[in-house]
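1st attempt posting a full record on here, be nice pls
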Amino acid sequence: MQIKRYEVSKIQDAMQQIKNDLGPEAIILSTKTIKHSNPQKIEVIAAIDITELNNQIPGRAWCKEQDGERRNGSFGLPQGDVVRKYDEIQRILEKMGPVNDIREEIKSLKDNVELLVDVIGLARFRQESEHLAKMYQTLTANGISKGKTCHIIDEMRNGRLPENEKDYASCLKLAERTIASSLSKIDVISKTRRIKTFIGPTGVGKTTTLAKLAASFCVDKRKKVGLITMDTFRIAAVEQLKVYAKIIDVPLQVATSKTGFEKSLKALSDADVILVDTAGRSPNDAEFIKNIHETFSKNTGVEINLLLSPSMSRDHLLETENYYRLTEYNNLILTKVDECSRYGVIYDLVRHAGKPVGYLTTGQNVPQDIENATPEKLAKLIVQNSIH
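the predicted structure (as tokens):
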């Protein structure tokens, strides 16, 4: 696809330039007024399928490999390149600070990129198979970003697509296998770590999740469990965990510092598993993140679990994960999955984080509403967009 940007005073001027440059078959991807321009200018983004451009320019040959980079299909711009360029620009702009105008420009740029990927993706996939075009629409409707959907379908093209055009169910199964193969599994070392810490933003469900796992370790796995809470910021947080500890008959220690945490570990030295609750502070609190890192990350016997809910917006999820990444956490736990309406955001989060998912929580009931997460289970959730 050939893309050109124009700055004009009137749309009519752009139309004439587009016709001269790209021909009558060109399409306009977006238009917007350029802020603070004097005199006022309009930005117009136009594009044309390169195969159409070839027909208009005699002797011009466009090949599938150009500038040493393989092109997919008959378009001159790979979707992956578009998305990577957008990500690079977004990172640069975000470093400039939280200025409203910049945020608006980022959003506008994102909208334009997604529109462009839609145009490229649907056209290219439909050329090859109606299955792929339908799959593109299904996965994006489920909440996977358009760029990552293109990557998934590119991987699917390397697999065996069903020959029968009506056999879309087989295509869905191929999508599940493709997604599952791209997700990480919990490593053996992490599974055997005795101390398991739970971190995450306020309201994500850390204390409830800890209680569910404590009951599971006690009842199902017959382990001797000890609890530590470092959440002394939230009103009645300690009392809440005391209630859980009393119900399942396990000891509870309260710690307010790294030194207190180490003393609590000694007090629970005979426990098979120690579960540690932490305060739900804002990830923007740099001092809090630093304390988490110093308390847990340097202890190789501690497994750090970051709890996030896919019911959050994609941007909020990715931004929160970025901040907590400084703690060097080991695994993700996805909470309140039952409150989510589009599960594709899980794929975006997990691929962005590059970390495995240990558990999914699907309700408030203790200890029932928690289950082990596997790449296969996550892939099925993402593709079928249902927890049932």
